[in-house]
């Protein structure tokens, strides 16, 4: 899986190009289904080519724009590293590819800004989490959503606890689990002959190199906070029981889940099992945060209508002018058209026309860049089933005029 966080989304949202191509598709992880991934991707590239032809691009220009994307079809290693969904962003100068733990709807959009609305669930604190798996032979960081979990392969995290403890504690030729050590004489004149790390009596376990483990866990903590330190998503620990309290004692990430921690060796769990176990821990945490925002909208809409709205013509200019405090938009739905912030006029079409963009995507990007949380929800999760909703920072008294 490729790392995707708030910084990545902000960078893409600020990308300035006359031509922006956004491709999304669900993907299959298993070898028996790999051919479906490349077939689906070929079809989406063909769809993009047709859209560019309609905009009068020459075939040679189209070949240049799609060149790097087409090269993916000849890279088997790329397709072996898939998660649940693929997002591709192309301009005349750049190509970006993300394998992510979210099964996107299949779509290809060509407009004057990147279509990033499907990515908001990956950066919303109420819809994703991180999991740090600590076992004796491995340390891994995962990013999860309600649908799936995938390893963050780009995270440069120290991995081998055994080697680390040996490095700090023992000569290279000695093993971690059991070694003979010359010891001070016991009170009866005998010698303490053997020490076991991780097994044996409580007295033996008390001699474990906890200071060295803490030092190693601090290195892990530093790496984790480098990657997710500015996030608000919860972090779950999975690991053998003796490691968890030690890591918690050095953790600096403020959103570590304290009460419910997965116990046991995560090496024994496949991704589906790991996702299931993690979801039992974070589900209530994520749902509580989302419900607070939904309840806040309903309360304001009922009591102070000027501070909350479901009027599309009020919300679009409020997003453009930085007046939105919190925005709710639905997944998989589009409002095709154009908004002119200079004249405060909007055109809306039933289907995409030349020069149109998705105005819900426009609203999400403007709100996000102006510092507002954006909740991209299923239609069923939208407050009261509304098609769009917003909480305003102050009374929004501007309504866009619709033109033909």
Write the SSE topology.
Blueprint: H1 6-13, E1 20-26, H2 34-54, H3 59-71, H4 76-80, E2 85-90, E3 95-100, E4 107-111, H5 120-123, E5 129-135, E6 138-144, E7 149-151, H6 161-169, E8 178-180, E9 194-196, H7 202-205, H8 210-228, E10 235-239, H9 244-250, E11 262-263, H10 271-303, E12 308-309, H11 312-320, E13 324-330, E14 336-340, E15 345-349, E16 357-358, H12 359-369, E17 374-377, E18 389-392, E19 401-402
Parallel strand pairs: 5-10, 10-11, 13-17, 15-19
Antiparallel strand pairs: 1-2, 1-4, 2-3, 5-6, 6-7, 8-9, 12-18, 13-18, 14-15, 14-16
Please give the count of helices. Answer: 12
In CATH, what is the class of the largest domain?
Alpha Beta
The CATH superfamily of the largest domain bears the name eRF1 domain 2
Averaged pLDDT: 83
Cα end-to-end separation: 44 Å
Characterization of the model:
With 404 residues, the protein is an alpha+beta fold. Helix content is 35%, strand content 21%. It has three domains: 6-123, Translation, Eukaryotic Peptide Chain Release Factor Subunit 1, Chain A, CATH 3.30.960; 129-176 and 205-285, eRF1 domain 2 (Nucleotidyltransferase, domain 5, 2-Layer Sandwich); 304-402, 2-Layer Sandwich (60s Ribosomal Protein L30, Chain: A). It contains twelve helices and 19 strands. The strands form five sheets. Strands 7-6-5-10-11 form a five-stranded mixed beta sheet, covered by helices on one side. A four-stranded antiparallel beta sheet has the order 3-2-1-4, with helices on one face. It has a four-stranded mixed beta sheet with strand order 12-18-13-17, sandwiched between helices. It is globular, with a radius of gyration of 26 Å.
């Amino acid at each position: 899986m490729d790392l995707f966080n708030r910084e990545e989304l902000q960078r893409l949202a600020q990308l300035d190009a006359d031509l922006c191509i956004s491709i999304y598709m669900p993907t299959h992880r298993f070898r028996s289904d790999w051919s479906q991934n490349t077939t689906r991707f070929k079809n989406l590239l063909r769809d993009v080519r047709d859209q560019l032809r309609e905009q009068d691009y020459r075939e040679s220009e189209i070949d240049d724009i799609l060149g790097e994307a087409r090269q993916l079809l000849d890279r088997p290693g790329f397709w072996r590293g898939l998660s649940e969904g693929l997002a591709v962003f192309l301009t005349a100068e750049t190509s970006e590819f993300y394998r992510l733990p979210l099964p996107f709807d299949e779509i290809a959009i060509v407009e004057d800004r990147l279509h990033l609305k499907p990515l908001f669930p990956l950066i919303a604190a109420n819809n994703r989490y991180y999991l740090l798996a600590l076992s004796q032979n491995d340390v891994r960081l995962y990013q999860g959503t309600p649908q799936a979990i995938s390893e963050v392969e780009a995270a440069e995290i120290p991995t081998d606890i055994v080697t680390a403890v040996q490095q700090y504690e023992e000569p290279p030729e000695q093993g971690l689990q059991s070694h003979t050590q010359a010891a001070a004489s016991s009170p009866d004149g005998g010698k303490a002959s053997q020490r076991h790390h991780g097994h044996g009596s409580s007295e033996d376990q008390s001699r474990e190199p906890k200071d060295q483990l803490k030092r190693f866990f601090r290195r892990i903590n530093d790496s984790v906070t480098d990657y997710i330190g500015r996030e608000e998503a919860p972090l779950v620990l999975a690991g053998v029981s003796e490691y968890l309290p030690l890591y918690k004692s050095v953790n600096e990430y403020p959103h570590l889940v304290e009460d419910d921690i997965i116990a046991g060796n995560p090496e024994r769990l496949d991704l589906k099992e790991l996702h299931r176990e993690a979801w039992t821990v974070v589900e209530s945490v994520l749902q509580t945060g989302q419900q607070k925002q939904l309840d806040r909208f309903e309360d304001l809409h009922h009591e102070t209508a000027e501070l909350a709205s479901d009027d599309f013509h009020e919300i679009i200019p409020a997003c453009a002018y930085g007046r939105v405090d919190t925005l709710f938009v639905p997944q998989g739905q589009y409002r095709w058209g154009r908004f002119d912030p200079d004249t405060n006029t909007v055109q809306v079409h039933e289907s995409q026309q030349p020069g149109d963009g998705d105005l819900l995507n426009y609203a999400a990007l403007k709100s996000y860049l102006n510092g507002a949380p954006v909740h991209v929800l299923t239609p069923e999760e939208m407050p009261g089933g509304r098609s769009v909703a917003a909480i305003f920072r102050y009374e929004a008294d501007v309504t866009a005029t619709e033109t033909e």
